[in-house]
Structure formats: C-alpha cells, structure tokens
Amino acid sequence: MKVELFGSCQYSDERISGEAFDRAQLVGAEFHNCSFVDCVFQECVFLDCKFMDCTFSGCDLSLTQIPMSKFNSAYFEKTKFIGVDWTRADWSRGNLGIPLSFSECVLDYCTFIGLSLRGFTCRDTLAREVDFREADLSDADFSGTDLSGSIFINTILDGADFRRASVYNISPTENSISKAVFSLPEAMSLLYSMDIRLED
Prior knowledge:
mainly beta, six-stranded parallel sheet, four-stranded parallel sheet, 12 strands, 0% helix, elongated
C-alpha cells in the first residue's frame, strides 16, 4: 500500500510494506492495527500522530522526531530507532495498553528520561548509550540486551529481568532494583559501585 505522508489521514488494518519516507512529515495521522514492514522513516517527523496496536518489522526510524505522538500497544521487531527522543511523545495519559515492546531492535542513543513504562520490553536488543534516568521500568524485560554505556540513575527497576543482558552499569544505591533478576557473571557488575572489597 502506498501512503503519502502529507496532511492528516486515518488508516485501519493496513499493511504498509517496502516504502521509503525519508525526511517526510506526517501530521495528525492515525493508524489502528496497522503493520509496517521494511519501511524507511529516517529523519521523519511524526507530529501529533497516533499508532494504536501497530507493529513495525524490519523498519528504520533513525533520527525520527515524534513530538506529541502516541504509541499504544506498539510492537517493534528488528527495527532501528537510533537517536530517538521518546520523551517528546504524548505520555499525558500513560500507556493505555501493553507498553512499548522492542525485540531484536537497535535503540542506540535513545532517550527515555522520566517516563513511566511499567512492563517495558527490550529483549535481545542493542540499547547502547540509552538514557533511562528517573524512568519507571518496573517489571521491564531487558533479557539478552546489550546495555553498554546506558544510564540508570534514580531508575525504578523493581522486578525487571536482566537475564542474559550484558555490559550494564547499574548501581544498587542509585536505583531501585527490588526483586529484579540478574544472571552471572554479568551480575558481578552490581558490586562495582558498592563500597566493599572482594577477595578470593
């Protein structure tokens, strides 16, 4: 299906595949139960748009801007979001359905500062240099994810799953990690920020 990204539009139950919309602007559009497959949205602007129960597979949304846009029950698979500031989206009513879900994606250099994303899924993903400061990520799933350089300060990670996650730097004194699950040997990094001495 060919979509012209100009003006407002509404789509339901559509499959949009293989389209390239580099640097396009989409204003006031609504997508309900739509799927985007192998589409390119590099440096696009989604202004005041709604993506409800939508899936993105094999897409590239690097450097996309999402001011005042809403993503409810959105699922992303093998999709790139390099440099996306998620704090600019519309979170005024929180997530009305399943939180954002990323699987085998690239989220390098993204920002989630201060967002409430309970149940957030970021599985088997590259999430390097991501800013999670002051976010509520209770019961999040980070299993199998590369978190090198990502920032966790005053972050709520209660009940989060970090099994198979790697290269993370999470201070137990600066974050809430009650009942979070970690796996060895990576979990040893939790001790580095503590004022203790380890001996053989």
